[in-house]
Amino acid sequence: MDDLFAAVSLTAVAAFVIATGIVIIGIRMSEKGIGISTRNIKKA
Fold first, then answer.
1. pTM for this one?
2. Domain count of the chain?
3. Cα 10 to Cα 19: distance, rounded to the nearest angstrom
4. Over the stretch 1-23, which tens digit does the pLDDT of each residue have?
5. What does the alpha-carbon distance between residue 42 and residue 1 come to, in Å, rounded to a whole number?
6. Which one-letter DSSP state was computed for residue 8?
C-alpha cells in the first residue's frame, strides 16, 4: 500500500481533482447559461 502512495504523488492527485472540479463547474455553468438564455428568448 505504501508503494502505491509513493508512486502516485499527492500534488498530482490534488491537481487532477482540482482540474476535474473546475471542468465540472464550467459545464454546469454553461448549462445554466443556456437555460437562462432560452428562457429569456421565450419571454421576448
1. 0.59
2. 1
3. 14
4. 677 666 778 888 899 999 999 99
5. 57
6. S
